[in-house]
Amino acid sequence: MAGLIVTLVIMIIIFSLLGWAVRFKQAYYLISGFNTMSEDEQRQLIQNGYPQKVGSLLICTAIGTLVLLPLLFTPFPYAFEVIFGFILLFLLGGFVYLSRYELKHKRKKGYIISISLLIIVVGGVALLMTFTYQDYEVILENKKMEITGMYGQQWPIDELKSVELLDEMPEIGFKTNGVGVGTLAKGHFNVKGYGNSLLYIFTDSNPIILIETSKKPIFLNNQSPTVTEDWFNKLRKYLQ
């Protein structure tokens, strides 16, 4: 969480400084491609108000992100998605709108590029989020345990040392290779008291299954406590 907050604060500062420099200090050279234009094209673009509006867009993005930042300190489970979605849609949507202030002979191309980029990025993020939130299952067969879905793996039964049902999840530290969105954590995280661990958990749901392996601990649960307990009972019997 601390890393995410620091990242967002840095983004707010960068957006603010860039927007201020462009909007109020006429640092138009910070806008991609501006310096490669002819003086006449630069003058027309300034008369259209394009660079000034780019500066305003960056400042508004910084302000909006700052306003939404306190969501991270509330119980709201989708604070990260809301903040990231705002930045993404506001910036990309803003540049689509600003295409109308481009040079006349570049407006059509500007619209096409901006809209295409918006569709590709939003579509890509939507696919990633869908895959991230895809349900995972525990499969026990052929002397192996498999956890399906993103970051899914298989383990031979002789690598599984013990299984325990915890009342709650230990404190999760930094992420080493995984995804943590909303209440979902998948992948490799550092867990207090356990070190580098593999997580497949919903942080707002208890209990938690702890599987000790010969390599690293695995923390696992389902949004339904009943399903989690069913997985635990099957794992316990499988390891006997």
Descriptive report:
The chain has six helices and nine strands, in the order αααααβββββββββα. By secondary structure, the protein is an alpha+beta fold. The protein has two domains: 2-132, no CATH class; 138-239, no CATH class. The relative contact order is 0.08. InterPro entries: UCP037672. The chain crosses the membrane at residues 6-24, 54-73, 79-98, 110-133. It comes from Bacillus mesophilum.
Number of domains: 2
Give the SSE order as H and E letters: HHHHHEEEEEEEEEH
Return residue spans where pLDDT drops below 50 for at least 5 consecutive residues: none
Tell me what portion of residues adopts beta-strand conformation. 15-25%
Rg from alpha-carbon coordinates: 24 Å
Task: Please give the largest β-sheet.
Answer: 6 strands, mixed
> What is the approximate shape?
elongated
Q: Count up the helices.
A: 6
* Structural class category: alpha+beta
Overall number of strands: 9
Ends: how far apart? 38 Å
Spatial order of strands in the largest sheet: 4-8-9-7-6-5
Mean pLDDT level: 85
DSSP helix fraction: 40-55%
Outline:
By secondary structure, the protein is of the alpha+beta class. The chain has helices at residues 2-25, 39-48, 50-68, 79-98, 104-132, 225-239, and strands spanning 138-141, 144-147, 153-156, 160-166, 172-181, 184-191, 195-202, 208-213, 218-220.
Question: What is the secondary structure topology, with strand pairs?
Answer:
Blueprint: H1 2-25, H2 39-48, H3 50-68, H4 79-98, H5 104-132, E1 138-141, E2 144-147, E3 153-156, E4 160-166, E5 172-181, E6 184-191, E7 195-202, E8 208-213, E9 218-220, H6 225-239
Parallel strand pairs: 7-9
Antiparallel strand pairs: 1-2, 2-3, 4-8, 5-6, 6-7, 8-9
